[in-house]
């Protein structure tokens, strides 16, 4: 099939989007020979010896390359001819290789929106909640918490937004930014209905010096105490980074980029333990109908600022592309922990109510705020597979984020408490619980489901 000058001009003009003009001049100064324009391969190049109908017909401003993030240059190899593309192309960029002039019409910017389905490391330092049958003074069945029942292992849902743009027509240099987070992830558990329930602690009073229980619900021959234990555990993450991206190696099928920039991250956690007891046991020194409420609240905040270095590799094959990311952020982590507690006892009238600035594990010895700064590293690794649909890409990936040297709420709880502290008039100045500031390594990992749009 012969291709005259007008037909080939229209094909090249449609592929370049807004090319001002396109001319084909044969070696003899006449129309091009009978060579055929080829298929577009996975790299975005046009190879010879195939049909014109196989060439993607992009509209004005529409990229021909499959991946909106990777660098592709559609080339037209017409044997024995010289193809000239006008300067009116969308990117305004042309490069010449031998007898063929190339026009880069791949996307110069991109936006990606993702849903994050992540899991985190469970916290094992929370108090042990126990239960047992009626008339049991020391229940032994573990209902929640303790070293063998970590909390906070449930699925966490979040979002990530990524945007980037190339700074030059050859896509050797670019800027990229991300914002992501997990929000409002609160686990709330209410323990009630057991014949006997309690909160376990190690009693450091000289008269006991052994395991003890703060009983919330109890069934005895002399009457019943009824109550609830409410546990609230929450974790929030918000992070952002900005990177300068430069290509180190690559061709039409793959590229490897160096990343350098700034990272911010904030990880908050909280643990609250609340118990409400309605007294109904005769002869225990507490008027029947008295409602006692004990609240312990432990909270932490970790705020990171620093720079990062990383590497991103992208490989394309047909409509599929695979991206790999590895980076390490280095900087200062400011960690803060706060402890608060309250106790109230509301007795039947006319007895006055009693209030104290302490809980069960939050006492005068550890209540307050502490802050520390530490230099740390935050590694991140990810992989993502994408499939081209029109001008966008559907993607599924995996991310692992490690945060060493952070403080978490559960790690700040000291379960050594003296029962003497619970008296209306303490027998001795409290010595326990002690104020803790323990650091731990926390990680998040999971699936990323997203859509990328190039323009």
Can you summarize the main beta sheet?
Answer: 10 strands, antiparallel, barrel
Instruction: Give the radius of gyration.
Output: 33 Å
**Name of the CATH class of the largest domain:** Mainly Beta
Kindly, what is the distance between the CA atoms of the first and last residues, rounded to a whole number of angstroms? 35 Å
Helical content class: under 10%
Runs in which pLDDT lies below 50 for 5 or more consecutive residues are 11-105
Strand order, largest beta sheet = 5-8-9-12-13-14-15-17-18-20
Structural category: mainly beta
At CATH level 2, the architecture of the largest domain is: Beta Barrel
Describe the protein's topology.
Blueprint: H1 5-16, E1 22-26, E2 81-85, E3 94-97, E4 100-103, E5 109-120, E6 129-132, E7 141-144, E8 156-166, E9 173-191, E10 196-203, E11 210-220, E12 223-250, E13 254-278, E14 291-317, E15 320-346, E16 354-356, E17 368-389, E18 392-407, E19 416-417, E20 439-454
Parallel strand pairs: 10-19
Antiparallel strand pairs: 1-2, 3-4, 5-8, 5-20, 6-7, 6-10, 8-9, 9-12, 10-11, 11-12, 12-13, 13-14, 14-15, 15-16, 15-17, 17-18, 18-20
């Amino acid at each position: 099939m012969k291709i005259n000058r007008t037909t080939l001009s229209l094909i090249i003009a449609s592929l370049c989007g807004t090319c001002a003009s396109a001319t084909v001049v044969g070696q003899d100064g006449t129309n091009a020979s009978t060579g055929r324009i080829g298929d577009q391969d996975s790299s975005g190049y046009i190879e010879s010896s195939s049909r014109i109908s196989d060439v993607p017909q992009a509209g004005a401003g529409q990229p021909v390359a499959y991946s909106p993030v990777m660098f592709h240059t559609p080339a037209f190899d017409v044997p024995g001819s010289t193809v000239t593309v006008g300067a009116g192309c969308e990117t305004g960029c042309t490069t010449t290789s031998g007898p063929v002039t190339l026009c880069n019409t791949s996307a110069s910017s991109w936006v990606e929106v993702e849903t994050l389905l992540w899991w985190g490391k469970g916290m094992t330092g929370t108090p042990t909640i126990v239960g047992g049958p009626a008339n049991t003074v020391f229940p032994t069945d573990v209902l929640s918490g303790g070293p063998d029942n970590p909390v906070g292992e449930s699925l966490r849902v979040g979002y990530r937004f990524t945007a980037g743009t190339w700074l030059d027509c050859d896509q050797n240099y670019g800027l990229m930014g991300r914002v992501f987070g997990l929000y409002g992830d609160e686990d709330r558990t209410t323990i009630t209905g057991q014949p006997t329930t309690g909160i376990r602690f190690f009693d450091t009073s000289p008269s006991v010096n052994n395991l003890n229980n703060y009983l919330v619900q109890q069934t005895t021959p002399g009457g019943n105490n009824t109550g609830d234990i409410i546990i609230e555990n929450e974790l929030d993450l918000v992070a952002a980074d900005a990177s300068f991206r430069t290509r180190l190696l690559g061709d039409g099928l793959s590229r490897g980029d160096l990343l350098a920039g700034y990272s911010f991250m904030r990880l908050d956690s909280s643990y609250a333990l609340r118990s409400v007891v309605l007294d109904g046991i005769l002869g225990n020194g507490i008027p029947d109908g008295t409602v006692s409420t004990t609240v312990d609240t432990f909270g932490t905040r970790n705020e990171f600022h620093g720079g990062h270095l990383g590497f991103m590799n992208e490989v394309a094959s047909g409509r599929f592309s695979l991206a790999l990311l590895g980076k390490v952020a280095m900087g200062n982590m400011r960690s803060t922990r706060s402890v608060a507690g309250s106790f109230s006892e509301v007795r039947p009238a006319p007895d006055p109510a009693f209030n104290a600035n302490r809980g069960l594990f939050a006492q005068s010895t550890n209540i307050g705020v502490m802050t520390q700064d530490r230099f740390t590293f935050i590694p991140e690794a990810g992989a993502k597979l994408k499939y081209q649909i029109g001008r966008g890409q559907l993607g599924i990936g995996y991310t692992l984020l490690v945060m060493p040297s952070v403080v978490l709420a559960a790690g700040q709880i000291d379960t050594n408490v003296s029962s003497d502290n619970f008296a209306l008039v303490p027998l001795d100045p409290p010595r326990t619980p002690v104020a803790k500031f323990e650091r731990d390594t926390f990680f998040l990992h999971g699936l990323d489901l997203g859509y990328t749009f190039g323009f």
